[in-house]
Predict the structure of Coproporphyrinogen-III oxidase.
Amino acid sequence: MDQSIEFDLDLINRYNTSGPRYTSYPTALELHEGFGDAEYRQHIAQSNAAGGPLSLYFHIPFCDTVCFYCACNKIITKNRKHAEPYLDNLCREIAMQGDLFERSRPVNQLHWGGGTPTFLQAGQMRRLMETTREHFSLRDDDQGEYSIEVDPRETDDGTIALLRQLGFNRISLGLQDFDPAVQKAVNRLQTKEQTFAVLEAARQEGFRSTNIDLIYGLPLQTVRTFADTLDLVLEYLPDRFSVFNYAHLPSRFKTQRQINEADMPSPQVKLDILQMVGRKLTEAGYVYIGMDHFARPDDELAVAQREGKLYRNFQGYSTHSDCDLVGLGITSIGRVGDAYIQNVKALDRYDELIARGRLPVYKGVTLDEDDKLRRAVISQLICHFQLSFKSIEQNFHIDFGQYFADELKTLQAMQADGLLRVGADGIRVLSPGRLLIRNICMVFDKYLAQKRQQFSKVI
């Protein structure tokens, strides 16, 4: 499989509109409050009847300090004791949800996100994993994909050793940028020594995959300064990179209002940074997985993409397409059977529902047949950059050309621009179209027209 990308500035400028990141289809915007505890239980029952492995996501919302660019659901506090009541309720939710899922279903994927999961102290981490093991069937053979997001400022060798002991084998390090002026502008002061000590410790402890998170488009960034950051990280050759485009939406995220907009790089500088990143990473031997992600050719994501087994869920790209995803903790989103489910966002509401023995479901959506069909189309395109008409027709009993006649007509302009090729057998995204894969997927999104203004730019 060709995993190259081509940076065409003219195409990028013409197609750089707002759109979803498609960690799900329909997107989270379609979840509604008419879906609650009872509906979720029905889908769990149907999921148990179908069987199959599980994926667990835990939201740990606490952070020691606020990063001004952050759009995550978080609670800022320096008092570690503030995590105890939340952990009590999270363990109760684990027990409630665990009782609903068949114990014969192995947990092939597990992820702690946040916030800052390493905000938790050692005893709290042990308790959380022990409670999970008590109520779900965690693997003991180290063959699952058990990952965690860490802040190197909150992590040391002892923490890394503990995480490996608890069963984690993949780790993602938040970095964003090493430039001192940029770090000060976004209130995230982090040294090279802190970052690389954690990366090296993870390798020594036997973590199978290491990822570095970077963000381009932050205040005071230039091509040169971001290249310096990237060069420093490339000396350590992490297995994966996540290079995100910063979406400045201060009307939605209050912490972003502390960023001086006059310091923001221009759209042209952001494009120049992206082009530089693509060139440097491909020259260093990384392949473009899609949607901001690069990986070494022998990484599981790159291998899965070449084998047509890559999947995308609320945590990003994954190799476990066969797993139902169970979300735990405030604001977490899951996918069970033919439904997406989101927990309540407010801590006091979460406390109240857990105290009453209720699942903390805030909203959800049940997918209809058209949703499932379009999800399959979008998933194939965003994961593999190609689509087989025959496969979709066999799985959904449709005539692709008839069902998607309008969409195929819309794709003609993209084909003329060299983004993709539509043939008798399917669709193949070409190198210039891979950076614009969100635009291609948007053609098949029936909900998009009235929601476009709520999404970030695709580049």
About this structure: Residues 83-100 form the longest helix (18 residues). The first strand starts at residue 54 and ends at 60. Residues 1-24+369-459 form a domain with the Arc Repressor Mutant, subunit A fold (CATH 1.10.10.920).
